[in-house]
Amino acid sequence: MKRKLLILTSFLLLTSCGAATSSAEPQKEYFDAFETAANKGLEEDNFGLRLDNGKAEMHLENRSATEPTKEYGIKVDPAAFELRLGGIGATKADDLAFSLQGETSRAKNGSKIFLTGEEIFEGAIVKNGLPLCIDAYLQTGTFYLDLYDSGVLRRGINEVIKSNIDADFPGFESRSHHDLTAENKTDIEEELPIRKRLLDAPKKLREEMDRIYASTPKEFAFQNSDTEKTIRFNATSWSSFRRIVEAYDLGEVTSSINVSSVMDEIEENATLDRFSIGLHYDASAWHSFDFDAAFTFKVKEGEGMVPVGTWTLSGSLAFFYGEEAKPIALTDKEMERYSAELVFPNFSKEE
User: Fold this and answer.
1) What residues in the chain have per-residue pLDDT under 70?
2) How far apart are CA 322 and CA 285, in angstroms?
């Protein structure tokens, strides 16, 4: 149960993507405009997402019947990245491009993770945090991975893989590349064009908002200004929150767990302090998506790694399009730094 609980709580954090005021205007106007804005924005060939100011915090206890309980904390502040997708209407893998950068114009040093734990994390790791800055690129059929600015975490990940998964794994290099194989390209092309996948999201979200509004309209608030519309949803209970989680077919993400039964467990073991999302858009495109979530675990007996205290997640995800979202491309000189082949661990090996 604890393993499933940890999986879902982490999943809930990852999915939690002027003041809002109630309005007498029909919700249909806002929902229609919301879906139309997504369709118009995605007519462009490039699409981007940017997170500048995300924050997350969680706490765990490692309990043992024979040793004192040890406490651990994980905090990311800020969480930042910029993702640019190019060729979202392409049907060939070679016509796709993307760039992922772990730093943004407002978070120039990228994400930082702070780890606390008795007898493990001390000194600078606790006080200054560790850089969590990963860059990646796809251009002309080659994938480039840059872990140079996350050296401490890279070495830690390599050690964990060698010790627990694949003893022969040589480790991730600070910079490396992987040329897509014919099989890779075939697999990618089965999912193209990306535009269709992106358009599925607002359609599905619109359907779910219609359904939730029909049963609990009080959880929505609407705001209209000269520049944009806002839809805000505030879950007031686990039951309203779980309607969102259980509405989506997340395929491989949830194929190994029963989401409904794990939601039963999370309701039993934690209280929902808040869950709020705000969708901001105008007639031509989505602008941003803000989120703020917190839940607190009840005091329970048990052994092993147990989630405790209040877990939180907040931030604002910006959307951008067109030339502004054109993927950043590596120059020929920059590519020379990625000469090492990207090697993947063998996850099928016995521990």
Assistant:
1) 1-26, 118-127, 244-257, 259, 349-351
2) 11
Separation between Cα atoms, residue 84 and residue 100, nearest integer Å: 7
The dihedral built from the CA positions of residue 200, 205, 211 and 214, taken in this order, carries a sign that is negative
Residue type, 291: F
What digits encode the pLDDT tens for the residues 174-231? Answer: 999 999 999 999 999 999 999 998 998 888 888 888 988 988 899 999 999 988 999 9
Nearest-10 Cα torsion for 177, 182, 186, 187: -40
- Contact at 8 Å (CB) between 239 and 284? no
d(CA 130, CA 150): 8
CA dist., res. 101 & res. 115, Å (int): 23
Task: Give the β-pairing of 130-132 and 70-86.
Answer: unpaired
Give the tens place of pLDDT for each residue, 111-155: 998 888 765 555 545 567 888 899 999 999 999 999 999 988 899
Q: Give residues with Cβ within 8 angstroms of 314, minimum separation 6.
A: 54, 55, 56, 291, 292, 293
Burial class (CB in 10 A: 0-12, 13-18, 19+), 88: buried
The string of DSSP letters for 109-120 reads T-EEEEEEETTT
| Helix (H/G/I), strand (E/B), else coil: 302 | coil
